[in-house]
Design a protein that fits this description.
Layout lengths: L4 H5 L21 E5 L3 H12 L3 E6 L3 H8 L7 E3 L2 H4 L7 E4 L3 H13 L3 E4 L7 H14 L3 E3 L7 H11 L6 E9 L17 H5 L9 H5 L10 H17 L7 E7 L11 E8 L2 E8 L7 E8 L2 E6 L2 E6 L16 E6 L6 H12 L7 H20 L3 E2 L3
Parallel strand pairs: 1-2, 1-4, 2-3, 4-5, 5-6, 7-10
Antiparallel strand pairs: 7-11, 8-9, 8-15, 9-10, 11-12, 12-13, 13-14
Length: 392
Amino acid sequence: MQPNRREFLKPLAAVPLFVPRTVRGANDRLNYGVIGTGSRARWLNRTFQKLGAQCVALCDVYDRHLDAARGESPKDAKGYIDYKELLGHKDLDFVVIGTPDHQHCGNLLAALDAGKDVYLEKPLSLSLDESRRMVDAVRQSGRVVQIGMQRRSMPFIRKAKQLIDDGALGKVSMVKALWNWHFTMPLDNSPLPGRLDWERFVGPAPKREFEPKLFRWWRGFWDYSGGNMTDQGTHLMDVVQWMTNSGPPRSAVCQGYIANAKTGEVPDVFSAAFEYPGLMATWTLNYTSAYEHDWSIQFQGEKATMMLDRLGYRIYKDPGASPQPWSQTARPELIAQEADRDSAEAHQQNFLDCVRSRKQPNCTVEIAAAAVAGPHLANLAYRENRKVMAAG
């Protein structure tokens, strides 16, 4: 099923957020559990403890991950292998979900049914249909749900957004999102140490025989992930759409290939192009080169161009008509800049604040559904070798 742009553009439903029987004050400690304790989730666990929350429960299907998380948590935090049992733990104010993409929908729906607030890692979903189900469930539940797209809570990016809204760039016609990393995928198929409950890991995905590489780099396989397209793309395409006041794209095309990750299924080099009303955007990823390392987004406007990346933002005045080729000494004029000095924990702090206040967090499920809609389209375009149009 293809996405309906109007569905993702709907405002937040007028459903009051659930208010717990005991409303907590700003200094009351919040208790939480973690579902999925891989590397990112362990960072979140350490961060929420640093911010004053109390970890009381941990769940993972792989004993090595669970043991590592236990070593970074209070000694009385209870361990589980079944996340539904964790959700029955008494006194949980919220849960942190850091499982692979294919588990996100089931984990979130079960947490909402258990009456829990949720911090869910990105991307929101494995498919467009899951996005719709998850948005509807959160709207009906009235719970506080934050998706882990942390750029939504970075002050320097919010300031860049205000500058663009104020017309600093003029009309933006083209946006170019890039991500360059150079690393080897862990597609190692040697025996996996420790104990893994493979059936619980597979969960709702198609059944298949266990291979260690499927677990070690689940992001390289379509059954468990949207690949690098949705992993990093949900971050960057969200910023593209946020800065330009756009909803999901009208259409997507994508080309790419598997360069180094030969025994995986998803491309590690690709370029997608998205069509928006009055705007084009490209999203290019290369995991075989460290040139211009990490992420960047270039917003090209009639008056100026903004470069936004891990260092901050820089705005360059447009020189106007360019009849002569640029020389090496003729550099664009830098007219504004801001360094990234933001806290890495701002997004998690925003969630904790909202659990206490019952306000909407910086990255709602509606925002996350719109952000991942384009990457989902691009994955369809890549896999089916065609231009894919959004429904509606």
